[in-house]
Write a structure and sequence with these properties.
There is one protein chain. The protein is α/β, with parallel strands linked by helices. It has 3 domains: about 5-100, 3-Layer(aba) Sandwich (Udp-n-acetylmuramoylalanyl-d-glutamate--2,6- Diaminopimelate Ligase, Chain: A, domain 1), CATH 3.40.1390; about 105-330, Mur-like, catalytic domain (UDP-N-acetylmuramoyl-L-alanine:D-glutamate ligase, 3-Layer(aba) Sandwich), CATH 3.40.1190.10; about 340-490, Alpha-Beta Complex (Protein-Tyrosine Phosphatase, Chain A). The protein contains 17 helices and 24 strands. The strands form 4 sheets. The protein has an 11-stranded mixed β-sheet with strand order 9-8-7-10-6-11-12-13-14-15-16, sandwiched between helices. About 50% of the residues are buried.
């Protein structure tokens, strides 16, 4: 693609250098991947700044460089003189946003060829996006999915490395969906991707807000900044799109402020466009009333009622008949690692859940306690990730202890932190009385094994925090580790 064609959709502040127009072979934001004829976009990342690697990109043959105005450093060009530029230097206001717009143009604006719906919030994103993907496939459509667990191009799985991929990968996947004949695509939209402009250039037909609680404070700095990141997604929706929000969340209506999109709501407590109520509940599932119609589902917990209302509302807003949607909802099953129930041969129940925030853990524990019967005890195995928000660690321990008879505090993904130091942070949230319920076992394998050894007939074990993950991150290395495998080995 010609450079002039590629950059016509971005706001150029200044342009200088040699050849005024040139054929671009590919777009890169990693200077190590540059080959002759490429366009290099210098993006400021969390760990490094692409502006520091411009000279490397030039040496490797980049024919055009996108930089942020005022961010170009003299040393970045080293021996390259402006008068002898053999490349185009293009200044923009925000190079991260420009990368998204360029990626979209490079792949032929694939989001415009799909009915694209984004799901954002602290909890529930994966479940809602995945259930929508499964539902619309059951309706007979070809569908794409971009999620934390796995990406799908209709029926073909593509490994997911981030909740929301980088702009080049994201648009490449969307373009593959278009080529495969997909009509719909559902994607998780993380707060990181919104702030980092990874979704810039995409055209969304709808946005869903699930809820917001404390998370990613290590990245955003404050809860207000985290909230603002989520809201920014809805602020960019067009008047042709819909914005569906959970109004039972105190910040649900905040998301709709300033949004041009058609505003819709869902709730289990108050008047809303899509209203749900639990009629019956057990470990086998629930009987729900959704917009006055009864439906039996295989899901458990009030948090899943919200997820199903988001799915129901979205499908109806996309033109599906309410009764047809309810019929399909009755056939859907929970997502891997989300309140996944395993029955032991000796009569106790083990539940694996991804809950890794205080609110998510509280929701799962309260659901278990609402459903369980008899004198069986609840044993919770929980930890916290390293190099992440330290403030939530004591909160996680507290939520586990107040709702369980026994708590085993262990490692999650320690990354570059000492696992014992992470556990010590968790323990600061507990009183001396609460500590009587707690066992500390640093090794997660031994922690799960101990919980299974302790459990008697009628007991319930909750193993929280990792859910679908089949690895444990220690340092920079992912070691194979699967909570479900560990539990089944104990069985």
């Amino acid at each position: 693609m010609k450079l002039s064609e590629l950059i016509k959709n971005i706001k150029v502040i200044a342009q200088s250098g040699g050849i005024t127009d040139v054929e671009i072979n590919s777009i890169q934001f990693d200077s190590r991947k540059i080959t002759p004829g490429d366009l290099f976009v210098a993006v400021r990342g969390t760990a490094s700044d692409g502006h520091d690697f411009i000279s490397m990109a030039i040496e490797k043959g980049a024919v055009a460089i996108i930089v942020e105005s005022g961010k170009l450093k003299t040393e970045s060009l080293e021996n390259f003189q402006v008068s002898t530029f053999s490349f185009q230097l293009i200044e923009v206001e925000d190079s991260a946003k420009a990368l998204g717009l360029l990626a979209s143009a490079w792949y032929g604006f694939p989001s415009c060829e799909l009915t694209l719906v984004g799901v954002t919030g602290t909890n529930g994103k994966t479940t809602v996006a995945t259930l929508l993907y499964e539902m619309f496939r059951k309706f007979g459509h070809k569908v794409g999915l971009l999620s934390t667990v796995c990406n799908y191009i209709d029926g073909r799985a593509v490994e997911a490395t981030h909740t929301t991929p980088d702009p080049l990968e994201l648009n490449r996947l969307l373009a593959e969906m278009v080529d495969a004949g997909c009509e719909y695509a559902f994607m998780e939209v993380s707060s990181h991707s919104i702030v980092q402009q990874r979704i810039a250039g995409l055209t969304f037909d709808g946005g869903i807000f699930t809820n917001i609680t404390r998370d990613h404070i290590d990245y955003h700095g404050t809860f207000d900044h985290y909230l603002a990141a989520k809201k920014a997604f809805f602020d960019t929706l067009s008047s042709d799109a819909f914005a569906l929000t959970n109004i039972d969340d105190k910040n649900g209506l905040v998301m709709l402020q300033n949004s041009k999109a058609e505003k819709k709501t869902y709730s289990t407590r108050t008047l809303a466009d899509f209203k749900g109520k639990i009629l019956e509940e057990s470990f086998e599932g629930m009987m729900l009333s959704i917009n006055g119609k009864e439906v039996a589902v295989s899901f458990i917990g009030r948090f899943n009622v919200y997820n199903l209302l988001a799915v129901f509302g979205t499908a109806v807003l996309l033109g599906k008949d309410e009764l047809d949607v309810l019929r399909v909802i009755s056939t859907l099953h929970s997502v891997s690692g989300r309140f996944e129930t395993l029955q032991s041969p000796t009569g106790y129940t083990a539940i694996v859940d991804y809950a890794h925030t205080p609110d998510a853990l509280k929701n799962v524990l309260s659901t278990i306690n609402e459903i369980r019967e008899g004198a069986g005890k609840l044993i919770t195995v929980v930890g916290c990730g390293g190099n992440r928000d330290k403030g939530k660690r004591p909160m996680m321990a507290h939520e586990a202890v107040v709702a369980s008879e026994q708590v085993i505090i262990t490692s999650d993904n320690p990354r570059h932190e000492d696992p014992q130091a992470i556990i010590n942070d968790m323990l600061t949230g507990l009183s001396a009385e609460e500590m009587r319920k707690v066992i500390v076992i640093v090794d997660r394998h031994q922690a799960i094994k101990t919980a299974c050894t302790m459990a008697q007939r009628g007991d319930i074990i909750l193993v929280a925090g990792k859910g679908h993950e089949n690895y444990q991150i220690i340092g920079d290395v992912k070691h194979h580790f699967d909570d479900k495998e560990e539990i089944k080995a104990c069985f």
